[in-house]
Amino acid sequence: MHKPSAADEESTAMSDLVLSQLRGMTLVSPGVLTERRERIERRRLSVRSVVYGGVRPRRRDPRRAADVTQPVVDWHEAHLLAVSIAILLLCCADAFLTLKLLFTGASELNPIMAKLLSIDVTLFAGAKMALTGGGILMLVLLSRIRLFGVIRGAQGLYGILAGYLALVLYELLLLSSFYA
């Protein structure tokens, strides 16, 4: 009877590994006694990772096939910066035009902003910028993810830009009717 050599055993183990991978089964590689990878996701999205990715961006595309449904990248398209800046500028214009309309006799329809206006104008403007800026930041971070399973975050930014543009044009129309 022929006793298999160490080379024969290694070749058989390697063949079994290749066959198991071709069949879609996970088998530990030759020489490894147990699976050492953890089943839980060790990568976590934190404020530190967002700030670090903003300062030193490196990930432009998802790394794994499983990441395609929820891609977290830290290198975003350049047009998102332009859209974000435009939204913030329109937000500033909205705040200015709102104050101008309030001085001509209009009233604030948003009850939260009306309360902030009754406390302090600076608080109103700061809260408006902070809320809009935070929302923009979240939409840029989630620009590749489908929101509500329907639209991508980047498309949401374009929708907000269109909404702010319409709002500022409406406020300009109101102001022109007051001064006409």
pLDDT < 50 runs, ≥5 residues: none
Mean pLDDT: 76
Note the total helix count: 6
Strand runs, count: 2
Determine the fraction of residues in helical runs and give it as a percent range.
55-70%
Strand content: under 5%
Domain module tally: 2
Gross geometry: elongated
Strand order of the largest sheet: 1-2
Specify the biggest β-sheet.
2 strands, antiparallel
Structural account:
The chain is mainly alpha-helical and 180 residues long. The protein folds into 2 domains: 35 residues, no CATH class; 102 residues, no CATH class. The protein has 6 helices and 2 strands, in the order αααααββα. Strands 1-2 form a two-stranded antiparallel ribbon. α3 runs antiparallel to α5. The mean pLDDT is 76.
